[in-house]
Specification:
Purple Acid Phosphatase, chain A, domain 2; five-stranded mixed β-sheet; 4 helices; globular; hydrolase activity; Phosphodiesterase_MJ0936/Vps29
């Protein structure tokens, strides 16, 4: 049976947004598995994701302090519907990313990452799919805030969709 995945990263609550938009929470609750690629900022957001997600796969980011780092790994690995996923917050510069990912994640079908706030969907020379969902709260130089949904079944990635956040909530300042 197919699994619906939600990919989010760089939520930066409460620094870049006071809270996540309702649209994102709705997506969390609809997903079979939620991936969060780091930069939570506060552990309370992790607590809420743990409560609302059917299954949560999570890593810490460069903006996450000791409490989050003590609860989360730098790299997470999971197999869902026969698809081997790895997730890390930061992969380095865009130039050469695919080759580095091939070298660093050889036993992986899909690498999920964040950090740049720039949506990314490419396939490496070795066949590794690289996905960055952007940020649902801090678009930086992007036109809109985003997250991704993914459908996997029987060892295949069937669909990847970049979703625009319609009502972004602004943070303090």
């Amino acid at each position: 049976m197919a699994s619906r995945l939600l990919l989010v990263a760089d939520t930066h609550v409460p620094k870049r947004a006071r809270q996540l938009p309702a649209q994102v929470w709705d997506a969390v609750e609809q997903a079979d598995v939620v991936f969060h690629a780091g930069d939570w900022v506060v552990p309370e957001l992790l607590d809420e994701f743990e409560q609302r997600s059917k299954q949560l796969v999570a890593v810490y980011g460069n903006n996450d302090g000791e409490v989050l780092r003590s609860r989360l790994p730098e790299v997470a690995r999971v197999t869902i519907e026969g698809v081997r996923f790895a997730m890390i917050h930061e992969t380095g510069a865009a130039t050469g990313r695919e080759k580095r990912a091939d070298a660093n994640f050889p036993e992986t079908d899909v690498l999920v990452f964040g950090h740049s706030h720039i949506p990314w969907d490419t396939t490496s020379p070795g066949g590794l799919r690289l996905l960055n969902p952007g940020s649902p709260t801090d678009r930086r130089r992007q036109p809109v805030c985003t997250y991704m949904t993914v459908l996997v079944d029987a060892g295949q990635v069937l669909d990847v969709e970049l979703v625009t956040v319609r009502n972004r909530l602004r943070g303090p300042g």
